[in-house]
Predict the structure.
Amino acid sequence: MDLFDKIAKNMGPLGQHQKWSHGYFSFPKLEGEIAPHMKFRGKEHIVWSLNNYLGLANHPEVREADAKAAAEYGLAYPMGARMMSGNSTHHEALEKDLAEFVGKQDAFLLNYGYQGMVSIIDTLVDRNDVIVYDAESHACIIDGVRLHMGKRFVYQHNDIDSCRKQLERATKLVEQTGGSILVITEGVFGMSGAQGKLKELVQLKNEFKFRLLIDDAHGFGTMGGTGAGTHEAQNCVDGVDIYFGTFAKSMAGIGAFVASTEEVVNYLRYNMRSQTFAKSLPMPMVIGLHKRLELLKTRPELRERLWQIATALQNGLKERGFDLGITNTMVTPVFLKGELSDATAITMDLRENYGIFCSIVVYPVIPKGLLELRIIPTASHSMEDVQRTLNAFSEVAEKLHKGYYKEHKVVFA
């Protein structure tokens, strides 16, 4: 069969809907300044879909630092991969401060979060090693595990007994291969909002020999007493051997970092193919990220405001009878019973008639028969935004319960 013919017959679970979904349900365009209120199709909406937890995207000090760095260095500098010609004192200074902040000896800057995690896993383990990972790990972890040429065992989500069983299997195997065991989980699971059971996993080191890698994309900057991450929140900083964080969530930037012992970070620095053969992070982003990190550390009121908004939103939803699953973080999933047709109608109703823009998640990401409205609160949102959203959700849920969306078609205003 011709490759293009094969593609035409199977566009994938999401791609099969692209002819009618593109531009509205998928690949929508939000316009205007990055803020809680933005325009979608020419109309202003309250936006709950931005990775801007602390509201730093348009913070005046951040904008000034970005602009000054761009004016001084341009967007190309430094020109080259870090190992060859793309290193600078600014890159190294940011790495030093990141490592200190998350409680590790050293850190290494990465161009992208997704690519970074895939490459970390690929670099750390060989065919003799065994990976044990959480069943609901992010796609970047899953893709990294897929590259692994050795054995991999998955444990049920946040189930320590299940992890123990997989560690028993892994231990028997490495006794034969002479390999090592790497356990991988997330600090905060981005879909459910649940924290990974880091402390319990660390305690398993009393029974088994392994190293623990966590992806704390959502926890870095938001969790813990200082915002250092979920490992700080659970008081197990030393027990997490390799810490991965991204700049795309709390820092409202791009890129990522990995932190560990000096020896492990140097090993990654000299062996991660995705960094060795890729251009260094541009100087304006590095300098801008340093300013973001400074604000993250010195302005605790930003994190406090985030949690004030998230708590008000979650408490209000619970009081109105909504199912938020098992979230114990600022990530706010709202679960409803319904089918794909309900999902599209609800999304349109919220956008067209209530001015609420949030992401909706359907099968195969979550089980059939369930819909998830995923809300990402930020420090920039207001209590008025929360109240408007609560009222809108109540009305939409009532319509769904009464079968309104089966009988009425929502149209563009």
